[in-house]
Amino acid sequence: MKIRLLSLSFSFCFLNCFAQNIPLYIGTYTDGHSEGIYKLQFNLKTGELSRLQLAIATENPSFITYSPNKKYLYAVSESLGGSVSSFKIQENGLLKFLNKVSSNGTGPCHISLNKQGNKAVVSNYRGGSASIYSIARDGKLNEASQIFDYNTTDIISHAHSAQFFRDELYIADLGMNALYQYKLKNNNYELATPSIFKTTENLGPRHFALTKNGQFIYIINEHGSSVTSVKKTASGFKQIDYDSTLDENYQGKNSCADIHLSKNEHYLYGSNRGENSIVVFKRNKFDGTIEKIQTVPVHGDWPRNFTLDPSGKFLLVANQKSRNISVFSIDTSSGTLTFLHDVKAPTPVCLLF
């Protein structure tokens, strides 16, 4: 009887512990330390990362994203002959290659899908363009249906990220210092606003975060080491705030990278490459303005992409140059971060839950 009880207890513990673990996929640069997309197990209770394994070998998958049902994974190949690939997620968590299409520009650095999972948009950093794709029911990518080329005779475009929101599409162009707004008409996206904010400075808008209702947009500026806060109004867009991402005592060079809202949208997080930190802002949910409340070191070098886990209790940072992933706990009552631990990983640049 005791043996049976011990067996049942062990089985329950094993299943419970297993249920607490979810996969974390890692996009990388294949620079000799990495071979492609990797996978780790993440413990939702403790924040522990374990069981690093290669999910699939592929060239420079610097940005990766899921389909909404998490049956498929999509990755850019940030190279001169830019491409984007689709993969099927197998039962063991490893990836099976489905197909590859041209990104229609060199250096693709970002991909995102719409809520329905039937369209994707890819940003080409070196090519200065963005491409729209339809996605088949089997997860495969069709050739691009629309291509936006932002290069002009006197300014070099660097499209860096894009997101769908309902029937709209937003594309951040670091070279053009613009965040374009498109609207869907007759199954094509048409330019509605050349830029949702105005600037005479070389800020370099890189990534951005939208609130769930789409009313507020927070843009992190790579060159400006700052966040531009914009509110959507009945007549267009209005800039409501502009804040530095750096500690007031920091005097060195810096390039901002990524930005995310907390699950409850009370807090905003941004990454600084150079200062090597995560900045935390408290957000006023009524007027959308933000206030800096914390700057924490990332315990690594060159924090590119970071992400919040599905529970909203942990924040994980991909430190590209030091080749490690840092894990922070989030105090949900204050939004502040506390460093827990880190693990080594091959040139991580994108993290995906």
TrEMBL record:
GO MF annotations in UniProt: 6-phosphogluconolactonase activity
Superkingdom of source: Bacteria
Database matches in SUPFAM superfamilies: C-terminal (heme d1) domain of cytochrome cd1-nitrite reductase
Stretches of the chain forming a coiled coil according to its record: none
A GO CC term assigned to this protein in UniProt: cytosol
EC numbers on record: 3.1.1.-
PANTHER family: 6-PHOSPHOGLUCONOLACTONASE, 6-PHOSPHOGLUCONOLACTONASE-RELATED
Tagged with keyword Repeat: no
Protein name: Lactonase family protein
Signal peptide: 1-19
InterPro entries: Cycloisomerase_2 (IPR050282), Haem_d1_sf (IPR011048), Lactonase_7-beta_prop (IPR019405), WD40/YVTN_repeat-like_dom_sf (IPR015943)
Native species: Mariniflexile litorale
Enzyme class: hydrolase
Keywords: Carbohydrate metabolism, Glucose metabolism, Hydrolase, Signal
